[in-house]
Design brief:
Elements: H1 2-18, H2 24-27, E1 36-44, E2 47-51, E3 57-62, E4 75-80, E5 85-91, E6 97-101, E7 107-112, E8 116-122, H3 128-141, E9 144-150, H4 158-170, E10 175-177, H5 186-193, E11 197-202, H6 208-228, H7 235-238, E12 241-244, E13 250-253, H8 298-305, H9 310-322
Parallel strand pairs: 3-5, 8-9, 8-11, 9-10, 11-13
Antiparallel strand pairs: 1-2, 1-4, 2-3, 4-5, 6-7, 12-13
Amino acid sequence: MRQVERMRVARVARVGRQGGEPDPGETGGADSAPLEEGRVVSHFGLNVEVADGSGGRFRCAVREALLEDPVCGDRVMWQRVGEDQGVIVAVCERTSQLRRPGPYQRLLTVAANVDRIVVVAAGGNLNAGLLDRYLAAARKAEIAPLVVVNKWDQVTDPAADEAELAPYGRMGYPVFRVSALLGQGLEPLEAALQGVTSVFVGESGVGKSSLINCWIQDEVFRTAAIHAGSGQGRHATTTARLYRFPGGGWLIDSPGVREFGLHGVTREEVPGLFVDMRPHLGHCRFSDCRHLREPGCALRAAVESGEVAAARLASMLRLMESVAPKNPFM
């Protein structure tokens, strides 16, 4: 609300300097309308779709003076300017945000005000490296993660998949084995999603949208029909979108990615983002151990003793190589 008041003062001052009344095109005719709090459903083109407290949907313009661009999941203060239109005048303070590096050295905010990151993988084709990146990002953002393995009905070698998933269960991550196609294993997952805002992330084709369709299928179809004529369709695959979860809570469907980079993390910080590595950190013979071939490496010793899976150490080292070191000479 402080940002709203600052914007009002700035607008009055600007009008006073210029003389006359505010330009209706600038204010959108919204100055006389009461402020309302809403939730950003999706951001597409120059417009933002906002849900009000009653579930109504409004296409809103965005004031240029905003300090932060609204993203899916944001709570915003907005004013109505028509039957189904409005203008966003402020973005409320975020409780959390999931971010990743984007093209042209830009930082992209995937979703805001998220309580849980749901990392979706495909059974029989688990991308452990990407899974580890998401779990590291969740720990960095202090957002609780859980792992969902979809298409479990198509797994031909369950023992091999269970062996890959075992380390995550031992680390305390909830792991759900489901089939969106057959509706199997969804009840425990549904219980974990009640009453919170969850963002579904993962590769394209793993079935994130199919899972969400299991609970809000009618809304997905209605959204597709509304936007098909304007060329703004396929929100489930092109831009993040927020849906109300039956019984309470929200689901955010995010675009599939091939890679997920970490931001604001140095090479030295990466081991601390791997839960199973933390008990062994600080016990290497050398304080600048890179955990490669140095003698007295506590992490490699943990692998040899069976306390840490070799694949987990290899994944951590790959992630360390992908981020910049704090020490440029490392």
